Amino acid sequence: MVFFRPVTEAALRARLGELEKDCRDSFQKLPDLSQIRTALLQGFDHPVWEEITPTCIRCTGCTAVCPTCTCFQFNEERLDAQSGRRVRVKDSCQTAGFTRNAGWHNPRSKAAAVRHRIMDKLVYIQDRFGKKGCVGCGRCIDVCPAGIDIRKIADTVVKDCPPEGQRKPMPVSIPERASTRIDPQLFTPYPARIVAIHDETPDIRRYVVRYMDERLAETFRLTGQFFMVTVFGVGEVALSIPFGDQHDGQFEFCVKKVGKVTSALAKLGVGDVIGLRGPYGKGFPYRSFAGRDVLVVGSGVGLAPVRTIIVRLTRSGNATAASPSSPAPRAMRAWSTSRI
């Protein structure tokens, strides 16, 4: 008795055609993404964000299963008294602590967090790399207990997008060139020694630090707005740059004791070693300041982030000019405001 026989080429093609048809028929209608970037930017304040936000329970399932979510954080693990390791741990923009600042202030609301995930997949990643960050796998839809559906959101904002003549001005998409080179030192802090500590207030200290490898200070360029400062075995924290681009090999940071890392930093003394990564962020556009009046506004400890620009604009020798031949700003005023 014969149970099996060779499959003919015609039968195989017919069966593959049936499977392909079944697969295509199983797909729902896909949203129109041809105008999605324009629609999302125009609908940045669309009511849909507030409508879906109450249903989100911040389980982070959507970002856990997404193949293009890459956010992470570092954990410092102490192995013994003299050694430890830095572990990269997956993070999610949907957690409340993702954008929480010192003092538990969070500039991003829950609705803004929900919106950010959708904008990142369909706008921000495309602006950076020229391709959308959503691959259409539907995993985030399947795993979401609240049924938040990126397709329905896309359909809603595209449908409500105002016509061409009524649209608000918006930035032009200029994809950045994605680099495949990874700096081996990118996530490893350089050791720096605390050489002086000044008590500004009972809970604010000014730390003067110097790279243990003095050659790093010689090649330093102030191109960002903050450093990642590591207390080994505890963690790292972003600290604003309050100093100018001209230095004698020493850098200063003003730190308020408010959290785990800053509290650990407050226990360190002169001679102790910390880690520095950076600078990160985009520096102030000094070229555009040439020949113009500049008004710098700060409040309380918020003066630390803007002190960089004050120092640079008030340097002797017109260090604020975009080039030796460019005129310096005509005037610079710094106002400090605070509540009574």
Note down, in words, how this protein is organized.
The chain has helices at residues 9-26, 36-42, 47-52, 61-65, 110-129, 139-143, 150-159, 214-218, 260-266, 303-313, and strands at 72-80, 83-90, 190-201, 204-211, 226-231, 235-240, 250-256, 273-280, 294-298, 332-336. Strands 6-5-8-3-4-7 form a six-stranded antiparallel β-sheet. With 340 residues, the chain is α+β, with helices and mostly antiparallel strands. The chain is built from ten helices and ten strands.
Structural class: alpha+beta
Helical stretch count? 10
The neighbouring-strand order within the major sheet is 6-5-8-3-4-7
Q: Over the alpha carbons, how many angstroms does the gyration radius reach? A: 26 Å
- General shape: extended
First-last Cα distance: 98 Å
Q: Which helices and strands, and how do they pair?
A:
Layout: H1 9-26, H2 36-42, H3 47-52, H4 61-65, E1 72-80, E2 83-90, H5 110-129, H6 139-143, H7 150-159, E3 190-201, E4 204-211, H8 214-218, E5 226-231, E6 235-240, E7 250-256, H9 260-266, E8 273-280, E9 294-298, H10 303-313, E10 332-336
Parallel strand pairs: 9-10
Antiparallel strand pairs: 1-2, 3-4, 3-8, 4-7, 5-6, 5-8
Helix pairs in contact: 2-7
